[in-house]
Write a structure and sequence with these properties.
There is one protein chain. The protein is an alpha+beta fold and 448 residues long. The chain folds into three domains: 123 residues, Nucleoside Triphosphate Pyrophosphohydrolase (Alpha-Beta Complex); 94 residues, Phosphorylase Kinase, domain 1, CATH 3.30.200.20; 210 residues, Aminoglycoside 3'-phosphotransferase, Chain: A, domain 2 (Alpha-Beta Complex). Strands 8-9-10-12-11 form a five-stranded antiparallel β-sheet, with helices on both faces. Helix 6 runs parallel beside helix 13, helix 8 packs antiparallel against helix 11 and helix 8 crosses helix 14. The chain is globular, with a radius of gyration of 24 Å. It starts with 5 loop residues before the first strand and ends with a helix. The model has no long low-confidence stretch (mean pLDDT 96).
Length: 448
């Protein structure tokens, strides 16, 4: 009998005005506030964390960032530590709790050794200062300022806010807020400066492809905020309807084909340009970087790295062959899959364009075929139908036979395209690189 996984959470709750943290005295020593659950939440989601602290301590908080994750997949035990913002000026600790400063903390026995390392790093940061690279939404005060902006913008559009703004998700890639209104749920997405094109691109898609793009209510470029109306439909991955998936692939290809005529405009608004010449250079640089491939023993093994490097000439030859096809560079999503497609009013809507670029369009189909295979195991011709739906809009450029070969080459190169995107554009701009460091090995392992 397999026991359910246990998720153990610890909360770093600071004093509002002093460099002190809340610790609770237990029969086994001192501890950060903690709880256990068997409910799976992705570590980026935080609304359940905020609610739990409210229930346990009657304290209003916001989750700033995840400080520590440990996963023992054999025992099914997971530990997560999150730093929170204390938003209640009048709150006092419970009878078994105290605000503990750095000097006192060093002498206290803790219930879990992990807490000492995490808190030592946290206290040092309070003394030395927060790194400049820290995301705005992981800083005290950002939430209140942003929630105020959201409410004021909606009121200015005669949209009545019917509840408080709540925090849904936070990590270095984004922060997502939600508020109930007379228009339905409205979302505020904060994006980092490493994705400067997401705001103007989302607006552009809303204007030029309104049936298939999120409805933008407002943009704050100074604070890198997008205010979006709820899609009003399920995500594609939540519905195993093959015809929906088939239509999504076809419509997406049509949208890509149309953006090829606007490639220069997309680049001008900040979309990275990633030609096949760029990919050739990026592959060489990526495969030479042992550190990002190995990730301290958590990524690829030495034999796997050696195998990939031995295949470098083959990868470069594929890039050269793909150049021979008369296919234009177009908008490449970067993370195209059923979780980033909604089904709204009997048509697909595409969202979350953070990772997008102007590149070979076929690279967007990196993972979608595998998702279809998993979701439709009893559909024997899924691969042919999916590929046909995607390639039909491109037949103005090449024959179906040549498109099929180009598609095969692109699928082989796509993991390298996406891995090199993380290597070049994303990881260098992240403070907590651990959040996404394993994405590069995950992509490259598809080639082995």
């Amino acid at each position: 009998m397999n026991l359910p996984a246990i998720y153990e959470y610890y909360a770093v709750i600071p004093h509002r005005t002093q460099p002190a943290v809340l610790l609770l005295h237990t029969e086994n020593g001192w501890s950060l506030p903690f709880w256990q659950t068997t409910t799976l939440h992705f570590w980026q989601t935080c609304d359940h964390i905020n609610r739990t602290i409210q229930d346990l301590l009657a304290l209003r908080v916001i989750t700033l960032r995840c400080l520590f994750i440990d996963q023992d997949t054999q025992t099914g035990h997971f530990i997560r530590v999150h730093e929170l913002e204390n938003r209640d000026e009048q709150w006092f600790p419970p009878v078994n709790g105290s605000w503990i400063g750095f000097s006192e903390f060093k002498t206290l026995p803790l219930t879990h050794p992990m807490q000492r390392e995490v808190l030592e790093a946290w206290f040092i940061e309070q003394i030395e200062g927060i790194p400049l690279q820290r995301r705005a939404w992981a800083r005290v005060g950002w939430f209140d300022e942003t929630a105020y902006w959201v409410v004021e913008i909606l009121r200015g559009q005669d949209i009545v806010v019917s509840d408080v703004v709540e925090q849904i998700r936070t990590w270095e890639r984004s922060c997502l807020l939600r508020v109930a209104t007379t228009l339905g749920p409205v979302y505020c997405k904060a994006v980092p400066t490493m994705f400067p094109h997401e705001l103007p691109l989302t607006q552009h898609l809303d204007v030029h492809y309104p049936p298939h793009a999120p409805k933008v209510l407002a943009v704050n470029r100074q604070r890198s905020l997008l205010l979006l109306r709820d899609f009003g439909g399920p995500k594609l991955g939540e519905r195993a309807v093959f015809e929906w998936w088939e239509e999504a692939v076809h419509t997406f290809a049509t949208l890509q084909r149309e953006t090829a005529t606007r490639a220069d405009s997309l680049i001008a608004m900040g979309c990275p340009s990633r030609t096949l010449d760029d990919l050739t250079d990026d592959i060489r640089t990526l495969l030479a970087d042992t550190e990002v491939l190995f990730v301290g023993g958590k990524g690829l093994t030495s034999p796997e790295i050696a195998t990939l490097r031995a295949h470098l000439p083959h990868f470069l030859n594929l890039c050269q062959e793909l150049r021979t096809y008369q296919l234009p560079y177009a908008l490449e999503h970067g993370d195209f899959g059923p979780t980033n497609v909604a089904w709204v009013e009997q048509r697909p809507l595409f969202f979350d364009w953070s990772d997008s670029s102007v590149a070979h369009p076929f690279f967007s189909m990196c993972f979608f075929p595998k998702e279809m295979e998993t979701s439709f195991p009893d559909t024997p011709d899924w691969q042919m139908r999916q590929r046909s739906a995607y390639l039909r809009p491109w037949m103005r450029y090449e024959s179906l036979e040549r498109l099929t070969r180009a598609f095969e080459i692109a699928q082989r190169l796509a993991p390298l395209h996406h891995a090199s995107r993380y290597h070049r554009f994303i990881l260098p701009h992240m403070e907590a690189k651990w959040e996404m460091a394993l994405m590069i090995p995950a992509y490259l392992r598809c080639l082995l």
